[in-house]
Design a protein that fits this description.
alpha/beta; 5 domains; DNA polymerase, domain 1; six-stranded mixed β-sheet
C-alpha cells in the first residue's frame, strides 16, 4: 500500500505549544516550542510510515457553520496566547520547505477538510491514509487498512497509532460510534453540551447495548419498565428523554463533514516533488533546530545518506570524508610553537591539530614525541571544541594537555545557558547564520573566526573570568575523574538484586491480597480500575489528557491515608525504579579491565552551571530510602584505600544569607544555629527549644521553597498544608526575613531591567521572557531570577573547590595516592590511601571552606568509610 499523511495543523500546533517548555527560542529570540514539537512529530511520522503523499490542513480565522448553528460552540475556550499564533507562520514555512501543500477553507474546520480528503482517498486503490493530529476528534474516521490516526498521547514523544481495535480498547466502541459517544457525554473542550449527568461509562454502556443515538431513543420510547442491572434506569431514562434534541444536536456538532468541496488530487500532494533538503537544513538552522537536521538525511530514501550540505550559503556535494593520518614536518612544528596558538578537535578516537589560522597540520590516533612537547608546552594556547574529550584521548597516551585557553562549547554555554547541548556547527550557525560542514578540516578552519566573535561577546558581558578561572581549569579535573572511575562490588549488586526481587514479590502478594484480584501493577489503566472502581477510593485526583483518573506519584500521595494499598504501591514503584534504573543495568556498566564504572560529566548540562552526569547518571542515585543506601554500599574503595566524602552544609541557604544580607539568617549562621530551627522559631513565634519536629520540617520546606521561587501552591504540595496555610506561611516568612524578601524583589526588578541575573562570580542567566506578555512565561522567569543567583553561586563554589582540591592533591601526593572520584550535588567524593586519610581530609576540608572568602561561615562535613553508604565522621 501507498500512504497518505493528513496533518491536523491547528491541533498539532496546540499540542506542541502546551507540551514543550516555553523557553525554547530560535537564535533570533523568537519562541519556537510549538514549531519544534510539530516538526519533530511530523519527521517521526515520515520516517515511520514513508508516505508518498502528505497534505496539511488548518483552520481559518472566523466562524464556521457550527458557530452559525450553535453560537456557544467553543465559546468557553480562552484565546490562545499570542506566542502560539506567532508560530503558525513558521510551521507553514516548515511545511513549505518539506514540500507539503496546505489546505484551508472558510466556514470549515481543519477536521472537515481532513474528513473530506480522507473520504476521497478511501476510494483510491491500495492507498492508506494516516491522520497526524494532536487530539482524538478524528477517531470517528478510523477504518482498518484504509484510515488510521497517529497522535501524541503525552507530550510529543509518546505516540499512539489508532486502528479500529485500538479505538475499541480505549472506548469499548466502534470508530463510527465516537460521534454518538460525544452526543451523549458532550465535549467540554468544544463546549458541546451532550446530556447532563451522562459521563464516559454511561455513554459507553448505552452505545454498547443500543448501537447509536437514533436506536437508543427508538427503544427508549417503547420501553415501559426499567429493571435493576440494565444500562438504563428510570432516572437515566428521564434525563435522556428530556435532552433528546440536545443529544442529537450534539452528535451533529461532533460529526466531521466528509463532503467539503475541495480541489484535491494525489498528484497535487506528492510532497517529494517539492522537497528541498538543503533549504530544509537552512531553515532548521535559522530556527535553532540543529538536533533535527540529522533526521532530514535520507528522509525521502532512508537507505540513502545525505549527499549535500550548505557551506556559507552555497550548496556543495559531498562524499563521506575519511581523514588520513597526517604528520608534521619540522618547519610546521616550529610554526606551531612560534604562533603560540593551536586549535584542537577530536573525532572517532582521532586527534586533529591546526595552526593559528585553522589549517590542519596533524591528524591521527597516535601522537609523536615531538608533538607531545607542543601539547604540553605551557606557553602555547590550546583552543578547541569539547577539549575534555581531547584531554582524555591524550591522557591515555601519557600526555597532559596544558594551557587550555578556549573551549567553544563552554563559551557558547556561558553566553546562553538555556541552549541545549550544541555541536560546533550549531554554534557557528547561531553566530554567523551560515552552515558548517561536519568535517574536521572545515570545523578547524572555522575556529579562528568563531574565536574572535565569541571572545568579544564574553568580554562585553564580563564572562571571561568565569571561563578562565572556573570552566577551563575544571576540564582537566573532570577528565581525570572520568578516566579513574569508581570501583563497584558486583557481589553486593547481585545480593541486592536477589533481595529486591524478593521484596518486590512480597509487595505484589500484599497488593493483590488487598485488591482482591491479581492485575498488572505497572499498568495505569488497570491500577486505576482497582483503586477507583474496585476499592472505591474517592479522593479527588486530576485526570489525564484522555480523561482517565491519574495514578501518578503526586496523585497517589493524596490517597495515602485512604487505603493501605496505596503506600504499598508507592513502595513497589520505588523498588521497581531502583531495580530497573540501577541494580539490573549496573553490572554491565562495570569496566572488566579495572572493575570500575566511568561516568561522563557535562559542564553544559544545567542552566545554573551545576554539573550533570550521564552514562551512567551517578547524581540521581537515591540517598534517602533504605534501598538507596543499600545500593550505595556497592560503591567501594580499593584495598588499602578509603572513600572520603566532603559535603557542603546548607550551602545555598548560606549564599542567600550573604547575598541578601538578611540580619536574622546571617546571625543564625554566624552563631552556628540550626537554620531550620531558627526559621521555625521566627515563623511560629516560639523559642528555639519549643520548636517541634513538624515545625522544623515545615520551616525547612519554606527555606528551600523560597530559595527556589516556590509559590503557595508548590509549598502546599511539598509540605502537605492547605493552600491558604501555605500563603500565610510564606507571607509570615517574608515579613520576618525582610532582607530575603527585599532581595527577591530586587532580583526580579534587575531581571526586568537587564534581561538577566548573575551569580556572585558573574555567571549569567539570561531571562528575556520576563518581559513577555504571557503570565506563564513571566512567572517562570521570576522563579528563575530568584533561584539562579544562589544555585549558580553554589555551582561555581563547588567547581572552584574541585579545582583547588585537585591542585593540592597533584602538588602534594603521587597521583595514585589520592584523587577526586565523584561530584554529586554538594558532595565531593575522594579515594585516599588509608594512611593519608586524616591529612588529606583535613587539608581538603580547609580548602573547600575557604574557596569563597566572604564573611559567612561555609561549613563542610567530612566523612570516611570503606563504601559510599557506611561513612563516619572524622573531623
Amino acid at each position: 500500500m501507498k500512504r497518505l499523511i493528513l496533518i491536523d495543523g491547528n491541533a498539532l500546533v496546540h499540542r506542541a505549544f502546551h507540551a514543550l517548555p516555553p523557553n525554547m527560542t530560535a537564535p533570533s529570540g523568537q519562541m519556537t516550542n510549538a514549531v519544534y514539537g510539530f516538526t519533530m512529530l511530523l519527521l517521526k511520522a515520515i520516517k515511520d510510515f514513508q508516505p508518498e503523499y502528505i497534505a496539511a490542513t488548518f483552520d481559518l480565522a472566523g466562524p464556521t457553520f457550527r458557530h452559525e448553528e450553535f453560537s456557544d460552540y467553543k465559546a468557553q475556550r480562552e484565546k490562545a496566547p499570542d506566542e502560539l499564533y506567532a508560530q503558525i507562520p513558521l510551521v507553514k514555512q516548515v511545511l513549505e520547505v518539506l514540500g507539503v501543500p496546505i489546505f484551508e477553507q472558510a466556514g470549515f474546520e481543519a477536521d472537515d477538510l481532513i474528513g473530506s480528503i480522507a473520504e476521497k482517498a478511501r476510494h483510491e486503490k491500495d492507498l492508506q491514509t494516516i491522520i497526524l493530529t494532536g487530539d482524538l476528534d478524528t477517531l470517528q474516521l478510523v477504518e482498518d487498512e484504509k484510515v488510521l490516526v497517529f497522535t501524541a498521547r503525552k507530550g510529543v514523544s509518546d505516540t499512539m497509532l489508532y486502528d479500529e481495535s485500538a479505538v475499541r480498547e480505549r472506548y469499548g466502541l466502534e470508530p463510527s460510534q465516537v460521534v454518538d459517544f460525544k452526543g451523549l457525554k458532550g465535549d467540554p473542550s468544544d463546549n458541546i453540551p451532550g446530556v447532563p449527568g451522562v459521563g464516559d461509562k454511561t455513554a459507553s454502556a448505552l452505545l454498547q447495548e443500543f448501537g447509536d443515538i437514533a436506536n437508543l431513543y427508538k427503544k427508549l420510547k417503547t420501553k415501559k419498565e426499567f429493571k435493576k442491572g440494565e444500562a438504563i434506569t428510570a432516572k437515566l431514562a428521564e434525563k435522556l428523554l428530556a435532552n433528546e434534541e440536545q443529544a442529537i444536536f450534539s452528535k451533529k456538532l461532533a460529526t466531521i463533514i466528509r463532503d467539503v468541496p475541495i480541489e484535491w488530487s494525489l498528484e497535487k500532494i506528492e510532497w517529494k516533488k517539492s522537497y528541498a533538503p538543503a533549504t530544509v537544513e537552512k531553515l532548521f538552522r535559522e530556527l535553532g533546530f540543529n538536533s533535527l537536521i540529522s533526521r532530514v538525511s535520507g528522509l525521502v530514501n532512508p537507505e540513502e545518506k545525505q549527499t549535500a550540505f550548505l557551506f556559507n550559503g552555497e550548496e556543495k556535494s559531498v562524499t563521506p570524508v575519511v581523514v588520513k593520518e597526517k604528520t608534521a614536518n619540522q618547519a610546521e612544528l616550529a610554526k606551531l610553537k612560534n604562533d603560540g596558538v593551536i586549535y584542537l578537535y577530536s573525532q572517532a578516537g582521532q586527534i586533529f591539530i591546526a595552526d593559528s589560522a585553522g589549517r590542519l597540520i596533524i591528524s591521527g590516533e597516535n601522537i609523536s614525541a615531538e608533538v607531545k612537547t607542543v601539547l604540553e608546552d605551557t606557553a602555547i594556547f590550546k583552543r578547541g571544541f569539547e577539549l575534555k574529550s581531547v584531554f582524555k584521548l591524550l591522557k591515555r597516551q601519557k600526555i597532559t594537555l596544558a594551557n587550555l585557553d578556549f573551549d567553544f562549547g563552554l563559551a557558547s554555554f556561558l553566553l546562553r545557558s538555556e541552549r541545549r547541548a550544541q555541536s560546533l556547527a550549531d554554534i557557528y550557525q547561531a553566530e554567523f547564520n551560515q552552515a558548517l560542514a561536519n568535517t574536521p578540516t572545515a570545523q578547524l578552519a572555522a575556529m579562528p573566526k568563531l574565536y574572535q566573535s565569541l571572545e568579544k561577546k564574553l568580554k562585553a558581558k564580563n564572562l571571561l573570568k568565569v571561563l578562565n578561572e572556573i570552566e577551563l581549569p575544571l576540564i582537566s579535573v573532570l577528565g581525570k575523574m572520568e578516566l579513574v572511575g569508581i570501583k563497584v562490588d558486583p557481589v553486593v549488586l547481585e545480593k541486592l538484586k536477589v533481595l529486591v526481587d524478593e521484596q518486590i514479590g512480597t509487595l505484589e502478594k500484599k497488593i493483590y491480597q488487598l485488591a482482591g484480584v491479581e492485575f498488572n501493577i505497572n499498568s495505569p489503566q488497570q491500577l486505576g480500575e482497582v483503586l477507583f472502581d474496585r476499592l472505591q477510593i474517592t479522593t479527588r485526583v486530576r485526570k489525564t489528557g484522555g480523561g482517565a483518573r491519574s495514578t501518578a506519584a503526586s496523585e497517589l500521595e493524596k490517597m495515602a491515608d485512604d487505603h493501605p494499598i496505596v503506600e504499598l504501591i508507592m513502595n513497589y514503584r520505588e523498588m521497581q525504579k531502583i531495580k530497573n534504573t540501577y541494580i539490573d543495568p549496573f553490572p554491565q556498566l562495570i569496566n572488566p579491565e579495572d572493575g570500575r564504572i566511568h561516568t561522563t560529566y557535562n559542564q553544559t548540562g544545567a542552566v545554573t552551571g551545576r554539573l550533570s552526569s550521564q552514562d551512567p547518571n551517578l547524581q540521581n542515585i537515591p540517598i534517602r530510602s533504605d534501598l538507596g543506601q543499600e545500593f550505595r554500599k556497592a560503591f567501594v574503595a580499593e584495598t588499602g584505600y578509603q572513600l572520603v566524602s566532603l559535603d557542603y552544609s546548607q550551602i545555598e541557604l548560606r549564599i542567600m544569607a550573604y547575598l541578601s544580607g538578611d540580619p536574622i539568617m546571617t546571625k543564625a549562621f554566624l552563631e552556628h544555629e540550626d537554620i531550620h530551627t531558627r526559621t521555625a522559631a521566627e515563623i511560629f513565634e516560639v523559642r528555639p527549644d519549643q520548636v517541634s519536629p513538624n515545625m522544623r520540617r515545615e520551616a525547612k520546606a519554606l527555606n528551600f521553597g523560597i530559595l527556589y521561587g516556590m509559590g503557595p501552591l508548590g509549598f502546599a504540595r511539598s509540605s502537605g498544608v492547605s493552600r491558604e496555610q501555605a500563603r500565610q506561611f510564606i507571607d509570615k516568612y517574608l515579613s520576618e526575613f525582610s532582607g530575603v524578601a527585599n532581595f527577591i524583589e530586587q532580583l526580579k526588578a534587575e531581571a526586568r531591567e537587564k534581561g538577566y541575573v548573575e551569580t556572585f562570580f558573574g555567571r549569567r542567566r539570561e531571562l528575556p521572557e520576563i518581559n513577555s506578555n504571557m503570565p506563564q512565561l513571566i512567572a517562570q522567569a521570576e522563579r528563575m531570577a530568584v533561584n539562579a543567583p544562589a544555585q549558580g553561586t553554589a555551582a561555581d563554589i563547588m567547581k572552584l573547590a574541585m579545582i583547588k582540591v585537585d591542585e593540592y592533591l597533584a602538588s602534594t601526593y603521587h597521583k595514585a595516592e589520592a584523587i577526586i572520584l565523584l561530584q554529586v550535588h554538594d558532595e565531593m567524593l575522594l579515594e585516599v590511601k588509608t594512611n593519608l586519610v586524616a591529612a588529606v581530609t583535613k587539608a581538603a576540608k580547609t580548602i573547600m571552606q575557604n574557596v569563597w572568602p566572604v564573611d559567612m561561615p561555609i561549613v563542610v562535613e567530612a566523612k570516611v568509610g570503606d563504601n559510599w553508604a557506611e561513612l563516619h565522621s572524622l573531623l
